[in-house]
């Protein structure tokens, strides 16, 4: 391999060796992304043979012609070699085809035939963007991480999570903190929520993070009374407890209002809003305050 490839190889090339004896077959894998798909298919194919005499050399993020040329040269100078590729750039693909004709290098295009057939059936042109599936996978795993975050830091379980949160929701009981946290987590936003209880001092971490990352939630006394009464019934408890009394609710709302004013955060009244509507308001406020988030 030419010296100019040194940095590239150090970062993006590795080999999988089957056993002590090498050289019977050498497989070069090229990808404009990580190359996991081609590697998996190749290993599935080689597993059908009772041999350890193979070597797989994988080259990731091949997106430039000069890089491609140098890999092709090495492959063509290597005996018993096969070059397998998953590229979407038509110029690179065409170059490989022409090169294989001129040198008799055995090459296998794993993905283009499938893309072309799908294009005919769907009557759509492919985007031909490298690494699209990787970006989709990353988005999925970011969403999973955000959901796990919301569960871990729900209802003030661990105030240390406030520092790492994209958003912190605060409010008295039954102001939709948990449903909103989960809904926003599905938009890749890491949300923690803290209940405001008259008898409990808010965690010190709440006053150590930027106010623009905090949003207060409130509700009307009548709506809270109704919701809490229904909650008690669902739990098999009798109504009329202190938890659902209007006097207690008013005290809680007054206390929460003082905390929110002390922090200086925006406050949303959720009494007549669906989760989706409140969520849109929150997203607007986050963007307005320059808070970056996924989704």
Automatic annotation (TrEMBL):
UniProt keyword Kinase present: yes
EC number: 2.7.11.32, 2.7.4.27
Catalysis performed (reactions): N(tele)-phospho-L-histidyl/L-threonyl-[pyruvate, phosphate dikinase] + ADP = N(tele)-phospho-L-histidyl/O-phospho-L-threonyl-[pyruvate, phosphate dikinase] + AMP + H(+); N(tele)-phospho-L-histidyl/O-phospho-L-threonyl-[pyruvate, phosphate dikinase] + phosphate + H(+) = N(tele)-phospho-L-histidyl/L-threonyl-[pyruvate, phosphate dikinase] + diphosphate
Example of a GO MF term: phosphotransferase activity, phosphate group as acceptor
Enzyme class: transferase
Record's function text: Bifunctional serine/threonine kinase and phosphorylase involved in the regulation of the pyruvate, phosphate dikinase (PPDK) by catalyzing its phosphorylation/dephosphorylation.
The protein, known as: Putative pyruvate, phosphate dikinase regulatory protein
Source organism of this protein record: Tissierella praeacuta DSM 18095
């Amino acid at each position: 391999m030419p010296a100019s490839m040194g940095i590239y190889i150090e970062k993006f090339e590795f080999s999988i060796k089957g056993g002590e004896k090498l050289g019977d077959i050498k497989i070069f894998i090229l990808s404009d992304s990580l190359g996991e798909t081609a590697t998996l298919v190749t290993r599935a194919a080689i597993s059908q043979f009772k041999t350890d005499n193979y070597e797989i050399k994988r080259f990731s993020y091949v997106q430039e012609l000069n890089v491609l040329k140098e890999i092709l040269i090495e492959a063509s100078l290597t005996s018993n070699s096969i070059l397998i590729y998953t590229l979407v750039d038509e110029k690179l693909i065409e170059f490989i085809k022409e090169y294989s004709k001129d040198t008799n290098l055995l090459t296998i295009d794993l993905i283009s035939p499938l893309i072309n057939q799908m294009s005919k059936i769907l009557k759509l042109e492919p985007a031909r963007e490298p690494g699209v599936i990787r970006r989709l996978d990353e988005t999925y795993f970011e969403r999973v991480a955000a959901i796990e975050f919301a569960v871990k830091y729900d209802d003030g379980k661990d105030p240390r999570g406030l520092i790492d949160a994209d958003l912190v929701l605060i409010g008295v009981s039954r102001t939709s903190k948990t449903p909103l946290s989960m809904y926003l987590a599905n938009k890749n936003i890491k949300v923690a929520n803290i209940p405001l209880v008259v008898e409990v001092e808010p965690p010190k971490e709440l006053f150590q993070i930027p106010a623009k990352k905090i949003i207060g939630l409130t509700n009307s006394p009548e709506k809270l009374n109704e919701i809490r009464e229904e909650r008690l019934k669902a739990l098999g408890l009798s109504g009329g407890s202190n938890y659902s009394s209007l006097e207690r609710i008013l005290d809680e709302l007054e206390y929460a209002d003082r905390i929110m004013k002390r922090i200086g955060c925006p406050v949303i009244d959720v009494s007549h809003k669906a989760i989706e509507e409140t969520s849109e308001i929150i997203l607007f406020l986050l963007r307005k305050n320059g808070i970056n988030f996924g989704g």
